[in-house]
Amino acid sequence: MFMVDLIRYATPEGDLQAYVSRPHSSGEYPAIVLLSDQVGFDKHFFDLLHRFVHAGLAVMAPDLYRQSTQAPEGEAEAARPVEALPEEQVRHEVQRALAWLRNQGYTQGHATAVVGIGVNAPFALWASSIQPLPPQAVVAVGGDPDFLREHAALVQSAVAGYFGPEVTDLIGIKAALDAGSIPADLETFPVDPIALLNPKSPGFDQEAAAQLWQRLDDFLAQQLANSWH
Questions:
Q1: What is the pTM for the complete model shown?
Q2: Which strand (E) or helix (H) includes residue 32?
Q3: How many domains does the chain fold into?
Q4: Residue 148 lies in a domain
Q5: Which of 34, 71, 154, 223 has the greatest number of beta carbons closer than 10 A?
Q6: 161 touches 169 (CB < 8 A)
Q7: Closest CA to 58 of 96, 18, 117, 87
Q8: Spatial distance between the Cα atoms of 1 and 73, rounded to a whole number of angstroms
Q9: Facing residues of 159 across strands?
């Protein structure tokens, strides 16, 4: 079991909160900002957080939905969905989380990535355009690739996107990213990929889930290669 700490950090616009965790071993690590799905911090989300930490990553999960009064480790099996957040608020918190994470002694000099799930996956894709210092990589699991469709020329980070069967234009999106020499791993799955992250989901498929995790792990390992443990 990894320790998960609730931290409060100052920004020019006011204090923000996040859950953070990192491997037990001393040293420095590559790091990710992990954006929850609409249900926020439930038990499944903390299981995902632990999985990334177990892989050797420091993880910061911004408290987008102000759920910090909920017990860490997600004692409830499920959390109720919460309302969508204003886009500017989420973008602001992603930028501030990246800045805080990069400034920690255990991440300095290492690559960072943003991983977004479900309704907040598009904000991971948007993070690829942050100026002046975008993350090394971004990952979207679920959601819609509209940002890539409309703003491929702004993308500066390596991109992984794993989508449901309703997304049918990944070839064109990949071609647009290739034109900008952006490394990209894009795939559609026969079911909603969010369900593949949770073995208790009604739509869970073990074989497809194994394929998704293999691609996600390989992508992060390659893009964070200089600092992956």
A1: 0.91
A2: strand 31-35
A3: 1
A4: yes
A5: 34
A6: no
A7: 18
A8: 10
A9: 138, 184
